[in-house]
């Protein structure tokens, strides 16, 4: 919808109306066409202003329409009509001008932006490219290199940067519409020739070919198989080499190719999945819209190791006062320096003063007595954590929320150490805690809806995407990681190498293959957990039962490497070798290849050639199968929760949507058939036995992913 008013006698104002972001739905597009006709036909009207309702100009095309038969006027001719208008059209940009919203503004003759506005062409993050002239007009307006950078990254720029780049003509702190109307009055009747961007030549940097080659190399390196960034470079290249009309044909062709691609569907699914996880619910009936969080002004962090320091920085940067406690004096001194350095670096990057005064340090746990929320981040040892929860429960003021950063220990067992288990939830951060966007908020059996709501709110306050999950070993992320890692180990036993497995997974799009990731996070992390649950008794590492645990196949490969202090990057040796401890560049290690050969010989295993498809199928389908078990157990409310966790926390490629979305894309019947096949070959690996929820979904005709929750809800299978 669009509203039309006339102000100051001669200015026609068109207001886009489609809350919450005035997306260019069919109705809005029709409204713009009708109102433009009106403004251009009214003789009293000498100039036009386009603005958006509710302090937002426009969030672009309506993404919700993408999956439907799109109706209404097309956007390209609509924008061309504005640009070719005989009367000046001014865009009054408040809040946001993104995607098709900025393209609409680029069709106007002038752009006035409020100082707080954000502008950009983020289509690439939806697996698309600016498909309404953005790839042809923006380079003509701000130069090819600047346009290439904005379009291939999709980043939002501030109004100040937009002015400096030449995207907008003026920035104001005042009422943007008033300023735009004043401006429109001032340009009425003036020539618009220079302000019809598409008619202007596209300025060529002297080394234009080199600019495009460099850009293409950069996006290919970063893209890891994503199609859209590459197509963005190709489209802007058309602006440099073709007249506008032909450039637009090229843009349309490239856009069409992306629009129908699986990657675009995956990225659009992921866009809405990130928003869906905010609408959390628990099997106990607690929900995002009925559970009121309690305000948290002062927080505390117990234990200032790597994670504790990152969490302290994240809280302080978000404006919370933090009491940071470390009982070990030496560690406390180092932590003070570490936290200050991180706060200063972060402040420099964001151009704000460092929040050093937000943190007070103490070596006494009593210092947290009057905070509103405590996050325990000590060593991953249950007995140590239990003792701390007993202390906290005794000394904190009534109502203080007690949270733990454990990456997989039992929340209920910790809650049982306190007088108020309803105040206990898990807040599982990912390293580095002040950088990684993901937060798993883990509710226990007794966690109150208010405790969950408060932890979720803290998560979004500190800029995290928080996902509410149930309590089980490893929660969602690490629980799913186990069968994925297990298959990778088994593939090594059967003849693969870490290089082969990692190559396949990185070609699929993972930022890092499973073995390089294991070396980065440290093999000893998982080893300590396996030791704690009795899987790694020294006598169990050799002999006839070395590869069996609780009657199932087990691979002690990781344990054997840890016995040799091959913890990965931190010791300079792991699945790969590194120049030195802490080295980052992984190189194949002949020692490890010899070790694998000896290991196979020792256990009577014969190496065989393993093809890429088998690596992919076994690693990914085992992971996905565990995802279905998690949905069946109600540990995650929906597939979106698992997908967001895996993309943000475990490097699953965003352009593949997430493991559960990928399963839907591949076809649930195919996933089921492959799991049945591999379980037949490996009957001693229960993680390959297809989950009954997967069978149920296939039996119900493999419904689309947005229908899975309905099937999950039906407790008793018809099968
Ligand atoms: C031809 C043309 O070239 C092409 C093809 C295109 O133009 S493609 C489209 C290009 N545009 C974009 O990529 C911008 C996408 N949006 C955003 O980046 C953000 O939304 C935001 C604008 C910066 C606001 O962030 P927010 O944090 O304040 O709120 P929110 O929770 O995110 O959003 C609030 C609510 O608005 C919904 N929403 C936001 N943008 C939308 C859009 N473009 N279409 C439909 N719904 C949208 C969102 O799902 C949520 O709904 P619900 O969950 O409440 O039901």
From TrEMBL:
Pathway: Lipid metabolism; fatty acid beta-oxidation. One of its GO terms (biological process) is fatty acid beta-oxidation. PROSITE patterns: 3HCDH, ENOYL_COA_HYDRATASE. Coiled coil: none annotated. It is found in: Peroxisome. The keyword Lyase applies. Residues 474-578, 615-702 form the 3-hydroxyacyl-CoA dehydrogenase C-terminal domain. It catalyses: (3S)-hydroxydecanoyl-CoA + NAD(+) = 3-oxodecanoyl-CoA + NADH + H(+); (3E)-decenoyl-CoA = (2E)-decenoyl-CoA; (3S)-hydroxydecanoyl-CoA = (2E)-decenoyl-CoA + H2O; a (3E)-enoyl-CoA = a 4-saturated (2E)-enoyl-CoA. InterPro entries: 3-OHacyl-CoA_DH_CS, 3-OHacyl-CoA_DH_NAD-bd, 3HC_DH_C, 6-PGluconate_DH-like_C_sf, ClpP/crotonase-like_dom_sf, Enoyl-CoA_hyd/isom_CS, Enoyl-CoA_hydra/iso, NAD(P)-bd_dom_sf. Its EC number is 1.1.1.35, 4.2.1.17, 5.3.3.8. Pfam families: 3HCDH (PF00725), 3HCDH_N (PF02737), ECH_1 (PF00378). GO terms for molecular function: (3S)-3-hydroxyacyl-CoA dehydrogenase (NAD+) activity; delta(3)-delta(2)-enoyl-CoA isomerase activity; enoyl-CoA hydratase activity; NAD+ binding. One of its GO terms (cellular component) is peroxisome. Residues 299-471 form the 3-hydroxyacyl-CoA dehydrogenase NAD binding domain. Keywords: Fatty acid metabolism, Isomerase, Lipid metabolism, Lyase, Multifunctional enzyme, NAD, Oxidoreductase, Peroxisome. Belongs to the enoyl-CoA hydratase/isomerase family. In the N-terminal section; belongs to the enoyl-CoA hydratase/isomerase family. Monomer. This is Peroxisomal bifunctional enzyme.
